[in-house]
Amino acid sequence: MARFIKEARPTAETSILDVGGFAGFWADSGVTAQITILRPEGPESPPPRNFRSIGGDGCDLRDHADQSFDLVFSNSVIEHVGGRERQRAFAREALRVGRSVWVQTPAWEFPIEPHQLTPFVHWLPESLQEKLLPYTVWALLRTPEERAKWIGHVRARLLSRREIQEWFPGARIITERFLGWPKSYIAYHSGATRQA
Q1: Distance between CA atoms of 181 and 148, rounded to whole angstroms?
Q2: Is 19 exposed, middle or buried (CB count within 10 Å of its CB: 0-12, 13-18, 19+)?
Q3: What is the reported pLDDT for 194?
Q4: What 3-state DSSP class applies to 185?
Q5: What is the reported pTM?
Q6: pLDDT tens readout for residues 14-41
Q7: How far is CA 10 from CA 5, 30, 100, in A?
Q8: Pick from 97-111, 120-134, 160-174: least confident
Q9: What backbone torsions phi and psi does residue 162 show, to the nearest 5 degrees?
Q10: Among 21, 65, 135, 141, which residue's Cβ finds the most Cβ atoms within 10 Å?
């Protein structure tokens, strides 16, 4: 969040669409922007104070006009929307609806899959990943009830740097590192970059 504030410099007048987020994420951030939170499961109820909460699909933002928000923000969501085509659609819609874009996602190149807490599993073919899911560190630390409730969140398709660069043309790719490894990527497409 500190990096976002430093780079994007949101003000009280900045309109932000947070795709897939929740109000609690912003609560202690110090950001005073006009934030609309889009959630696939529908609006938060009751709507959080100082936020607008709506339901919708980040891969299909047809209810929103081109560049209708100053900034589209998304934190660790694009890897959960489905396969490559839905991820491409997510990127395309973010770039269409936002004058600026800030999309963060875990790096495929990092050796530990951050949702399953297991090394190397995300480098295997998807069919094998699915079979190994019950044996990941995440699954072994959960009760059957917890596994059933959160299994959808744990399934993720991580993106490589090449994909991020391809799907967010013109964006600056910020790499967050841990012990030298790329841990996550941020595609930052500022309004200034877009106008240039």
Answers
A1: 32
A2: buried
A3: 47
A4: strand
A5: 0.89
A6: 999 999 988 888 888 889 899 999 998 8
A7: 6, 10, 11
A8: 120-134
A9: -60, -45
A10: 21
Greatest extent of the chain over all pairs of C-alpha atoms, in Å:
53
Tokens of 181: 């490894």
CB 165 within 8 A of CB 173: yes
CA dihedral 32→34→39→42, nearest 10 degrees, is 120
In the block, residue with structure tokens 């709506």: 54
Higher pLDDT, 22 or 184: 184
pLDDT at 128 over 90: no
How is residue 31 written in tokens? 């950001």
Length of the chain: 196
Rg, Å, the chain Cα set? 17
Q: Are 114 and 178 in contact (CB under 8 A)?
A: no
Residue given tokens 């094998």 in the structure block: 128
Retrieve residue 38's tokens: 């889009």
pLDDT above 80 (res 152): no
Instruction: Print burial letters for 111-143: b (CB count within 10 Å at least 16), e (below 16).
Output: ebbbbbebeebbeeeeeebeeebeebebbeebe
